[in-house]
Amino acid sequence: MKKKPIRHRKSNASKKAGLPPGSITYIGKERSEAAILEMISYNPQELSKVKYDTCAELHKNMQPNSVNWINVDGIHNYQLINEFHDIFNLDNLLLEDVSNTNQRPKVEEYENYLFLSLKMLRYDEVEKTIDSEQISLVLSKDYVISFQEKTGDVFGHIRERIEAPKGQIRSKKNDYLFYSLIDSIVDNYFIAIENIGNDLEDLEDEIFNDPSQKSLQKIHAYKNILLVLRRSIYPLRESVNKLLRDNDKFISPKNIKYFNDVHDHTIQIIDILESYRDVVSGLKDSYLSSLSLKMNQVMQVLTIMATIFIPLTFISGIYGMNFETIPELKWEYGYYYFWAISIVIGIGLLFYFKKKKWL
Amino acid sequence: MKKKPIRHRKSNASKKAGLPPGSITYIGKERSEAAILEMISYNPQELSKVKYDTCAELHKNMQPNSVNWINVDGIHNYQLINEFHDIFNLDNLLLEDVSNTNQRPKVEEYENYLFLSLKMLRYDEVEKTIDSEQISLVLSKDYVISFQEKTGDVFGHIRERIEAPKGQIRSKKNDYLFYSLIDSIVDNYFIAIENIGNDLEDLEDEIFNDPSQKSLQKIHAYKNILLVLRRSIYPLRESVNKLLRDNDKFISPKNIKYFNDVHDHTIQIIDILESYRDVVSGLKDSYLSSLSLKMNQVMQVLTIMATIFIPLTFISGIYGMNFETIPELKWEYGYYYFWAISIVIGIGLLFYFKKKKWL
Amino acid sequence: MKKKPIRHRKSNASKKAGLPPGSITYIGKERSEAAILEMISYNPQELSKVKYDTCAELHKNMQPNSVNWINVDGIHNYQLINEFHDIFNLDNLLLEDVSNTNQRPKVEEYENYLFLSLKMLRYDEVEKTIDSEQISLVLSKDYVISFQEKTGDVFGHIRERIEAPKGQIRSKKNDYLFYSLIDSIVDNYFIAIENIGNDLEDLEDEIFNDPSQKSLQKIHAYKNILLVLRRSIYPLRESVNKLLRDNDKFISPKNIKYFNDVHDHTIQIIDILESYRDVVSGLKDSYLSSLSLKMNQVMQVLTIMATIFIPLTFISGIYGMNFETIPELKWEYGYYYFWAISIVIGIGLLFYFKKKKWL
Amino acid sequence: MKKKPIRHRKSNASKKAGLPPGSITYIGKERSEAAILEMISYNPQELSKVKYDTCAELHKNMQPNSVNWINVDGIHNYQLINEFHDIFNLDNLLLEDVSNTNQRPKVEEYENYLFLSLKMLRYDEVEKTIDSEQISLVLSKDYVISFQEKTGDVFGHIRERIEAPKGQIRSKKNDYLFYSLIDSIVDNYFIAIENIGNDLEDLEDEIFNDPSQKSLQKIHAYKNILLVLRRSIYPLRESVNKLLRDNDKFISPKNIKYFNDVHDHTIQIIDILESYRDVVSGLKDSYLSSLSLKMNQVMQVLTIMATIFIPLTFISGIYGMNFETIPELKWEYGYYYFWAISIVIGIGLLFYFKKKKWL
Amino acid sequence: MKKKPIRHRKSNASKKAGLPPGSITYIGKERSEAAILEMISYNPQELSKVKYDTCAELHKNMQPNSVNWINVDGIHNYQLINEFHDIFNLDNLLLEDVSNTNQRPKVEEYENYLFLSLKMLRYDEVEKTIDSEQISLVLSKDYVISFQEKTGDVFGHIRERIEAPKGQIRSKKNDYLFYSLIDSIVDNYFIAIENIGNDLEDLEDEIFNDPSQKSLQKIHAYKNILLVLRRSIYPLRESVNKLLRDNDKFISPKNIKYFNDVHDHTIQIIDILESYRDVVSGLKDSYLSSLSLKMNQVMQVLTIMATIFIPLTFISGIYGMNFETIPELKWEYGYYYFWAISIVIGIGLLFYFKKKKWL
Prior knowledge:
Five copies of one chain form a homopentamer. With 359 residues, chain A is α+β, with helices and mostly antiparallel strands. Chain A has helices spanning 4-10, 55-60, 78-87, 92-99, 156-163, 174-209, 213-246, 256-318, 327-330, 334-355, and strands spanning 36-42, 47-52, 67-73, 106-109, 113-124, 129-140, 143-148. In chain A, strands 2-1-3-7-6-5-4 form a seven-stranded mixed beta sheet, sandwiched between helices. Chain A starts with a helix and ends with a helix. Chains A, B, C, D, E: It is a multi-pass membrane protein. Chains A, B, C, D, E: It is found in: Cell membrane; Membrane.
């Protein structure tokens, strides 16, 4: 379990080495599903939601006075991604980033559109891993495109709100949809983090009660998960910050406050992550000191037993000797004296250990 | 006990995921008390203090030439909070932050008012936890609003000073009241910190005298408490700093010095917090080396006992053997020689241990 | 001993909570001595040094063409401090900082004067604690005021130089006196630090030779002392830097170089402090590994003794058995063979331990 | 194995001490191969690839309307490097940096050319070391020069793309070739890092299953390798960043996006490096706690054995004594009682250890 | 050995406390050698190298059209240093810094000259200490002054190059000499660092093979040496950087590249220092885990011996008992059965330990 966060990270990065720039190379997990291309066009009055086979077809059906949300599930489909270059005129370097599932979250402003790459994170509670999916968003005057690795996303709430005839979102523009998509992804980070928090508490109990080598492996696994989260969220914060600073071209001033809100959320997530990092490093300390404590207890038991019986055994050894003249052996109550002395020594040592707080 | 600071943190954050922005959702502990809405209006001549049921009613009674301090206890009352949007025209995103008890301290300037969110912290000396309450302050030309999670606050001194007919505060404006509320909250941080400092000293004594696994749990508990404090106070410092830099619109220049003073106090608190962090991490080291020391002592006892008696037992074993010819057994004073040798060996080893400083 | 630096820090900070701003509240140790108010007025020709009972009286006697150095010993005297507000027109917030012995070093420019708060530090070599005293300096065109907690200071050299008729200082202005006071305090930091350095070397020897739990307590005590120093000196460096950048109003350009020099000294002190921090954390490592080493030695002694005698004891046990037919017991030289075997085993094991470098 | 990364670093740095600046001194490994000087000149129509013996000869053959890529394998050839000063007018300080294999990656703009020094890194999977080679690139209006330490590089793909008649690269200018060379080197970093990642996972398994002192040496070796990588890649990021900011003179604006892409890659590599650092430091913790765990197990075995048999041995010792009157010895079933008691004690202790989870 | 770097640091710093500013007080080691005052004047045509007794005499002999390099060995000579104030008009604060051997490296621009203070470091390979000497350089239009603590320096190469009639340096100006002196000192840092690197490798071998308390002391000694180096080189880098940024007045633009080169070297040295810091902290970990490993081995030996022989001794004890009826004692082959059982138990336990990898 533990290694997945690392493994996922570097998968196939070397596939790209040596290719010319702007090479659209999908480097994520191999997928066989067909890619899905769908457009939702809406304005306060109208709404249409249609799947298309080709980009060209879709492009013809774009509504001039509506918000056109084009969603692509399946960035492993090279031909489809390439069509966006031909038909939507998206830059090849941008599309290279779209297909590169290792892409670090970033924002880039092109002449006619704004590009934001970020991660959709879901915490798999059974496997205790982070399921990270690359999402790329393109915002232009005429459309919003969202590229996803696979079917299934966190945009369900947004679709519902669009489909509700009186949803606030229906009366808003592209930039608000763009914001809503980002916000939806960021809100899901909170859920992932909350689950991790619960798991960390369980782990804490385990470590205090019964620390084993497995506990240590779990600690490392969570440390790695937090690293993956950090790597996704820190650059996102910078990106959103850059959006706030620079992009008055694609985002209307009155919507800036929404992006401000997203920025606040990323800061809050980072705060929690940092505190979890502290928790995890505290867990490691607890683990190590649990080991030490246990060792101490083991040693105390050994010492108590040995310290009590070693001198007694010596005494019994003395009277097992075969010297011709050992006067005590002839005493009538010698054997009983032996017991008396043994019991006195034993009880004396027990008191001594009591005083030392070893018992 | 130990986990509360974490648990409190993430409570219900996920409730908000998927909701449209500006959704006023209370995510703190569930509360059933009725919310309280009160306005104190004062100027040098007059003073009124009235509870209202609705915002509308309150709004009608606002005094144009007075400082109007509106205090709301109970941000879990969705209807009430919403009225502030309708009647005072407060932005929905602002009210969302008011209801979000996880909100990070922040300051935001809107067109007609200034918004400051901060935490009221009280250290519960019995439970050894930080009781954190979300306070939101709104400052406009006409009023100051304070939103609290629940009844009971640290503003008692301010109410008294307002009620005193010749209080300096009576002759001051909104911005001074706004300052006084912040100052009052920040002053209470000092009390919380002082209590923690006392507890840390007790813990230090405990660790040096009788370290147990409970001590470690306490160390982690205090570490978490300090984390909670940091998360509340660092952003507050930034916020107050931002107030100092940017907001000449709502704060008159001659009162800037008061906010400067608050800023100084937050820096001082952060200084103390940082030093407590060092203290806590020093405690962990002390705990671990206390364990090591104890282990050393246990091992020394074991080694002393074993080293003295193991050779003696061997000697006694020799003369317990049944060889037909063991000349020593026939010696008249053999048994006494045995004792002499045993005592010499024993005392010799004791001197050796003395020299090694094990005794 | 160890806790004083912490304890001193937070003493009574909570006394101030709830008071209106500008409340002059002395929060240091309780003192009963009478406060002393003295003014030294000098110019190249003249010199007067008089004690006064009230501020008003002193104010009347200020010399217009001289440097007037007003020194106050005893900031616990509320009435006296208050008089400075009435007669010298010092701001109440400034005087609040003067009386607050927890005040962080800072510089503040007011309209008619410059305020610098800093710490006078003396290392008590017997108690191994830092004796920290709050000094506040006010520089205006007409006077320099120095507020001290108690009688006794590090300004003796300055007084001597003033009293020497041809002292360079006599021909200089207020700003040079202001500099001299700061310089004198900063120079004393070097002495405190030198003493700590010597103590750290002694502690290092102790830890390598005979580590005990007391050593660890001392390490923590020095760590705390260094923390106190840091908290005093870092903000002072910032303050002096701020003086250098901003205050051409009270400091003449040709004296800037002196303040530059002080700034250099604070940087140098911080350098040394940082290296002492490293030394102290190295001491802790040494302490822990001293413990481990000692444990190793103890264990080796135990293992050597047990490993040699346990098999020998077993052999002696064999020939102590009462089986009817143990042929060896009948051998003429059986007993001597036993000794031979025992000695061979014993020496063999000693060689083995020699090879393992345990001896 | 472990020390190579350090050793390589400081080799011969002192050779340069005392020489006048601009002294071209090769300080890397001694090499005896002849240096190779080759020029590839291309434009969309034409392509030539010729080896030359001297710089002068090469210079005569430079094509005015082509991209001229001059590649030098063998910076240990002092005469050859010097010719670049005489014929290409390259600054002596630049050539000093070219020959200094310890040169930190840097970019420098000269009047007529741009100089970039960086490292070509290859991970030797057998030796587990980083093979670092110094590459220096010079970009001018007329040519691109690449200086390498030895034959063999990562530019194979670029040569292939140049030789392909319709390669995009053929229609581009010097700056694009310059970018391609950098990109090619940076892409190879990903391969090195991926290999290290795999090795780290193997090491992790080893440490959890069978930690030995060799594991620790390996951990240090990887730590050193990561240090070498950091030292190569951090300054490269800065350098590329500087290129992005300042150098519109040699890089056409429409190609800036390619350098932006390289910059992104360096950031991504740094991200991975940082996470590997965490992994390596986690491995060290695992190693230490593996040792502790093993110690605990050893101690438990010892304690169980000793605790069970020491009291039993005492009992057997009692009935080995030779007192004249030991009544139990006369009992008919005394011997069987002895066994019964021994078995009861033995089993009782086993249950006790079971309860303590030592078994 | 270990403490010298600290001791050297703070020597006599307190001597200066209480003196007026600009007091030229030598605080280094006491020296009795006579100070040496020498001037080398050169231009492309001429060269003179003369020792002088007084500054005044030297000043008269300065050559107007030559580079005048004045070298002073012996800053402990108060009168001589003071003459520089009288005759060369050097500021007293500057001369105070010249005599203060604890002076942190710094650069300062005065009206007529530029002042640079730095450290000449030599690593004493026998004593394993850093020999640090304070060098102060003054650059004006007319001369370069170098102040040294004592005779013997690293400027031999420069003198040789000056004396060589066609040396490049002869045709250059003051600023180039100034650069050459700095460069020469910085180049020597590389030698010091290379030696330390070699020593660290030896120490690493020692720790892996035979860790003792001396190893730990050595680790601390190297840590302190690296601290001393850091404290000398970090501020030097800043100073050179400041030179690069600000001082076009004394350094001609065409020579800026040389200072750039020195700056690069300081960065490279800092890089190496940082990596050595990591190496040293890795050594401490290795030391501690070497101790743990050794402890584990000791414990394993003890446990193996005890576990094998303790039960056997118990068995032999059984048949040493004197019960009247122990049937086994009567068996013909009882003694041989005993041996058989003992050998089976012994071998069984050995297999068990083999399986546990303790053997």
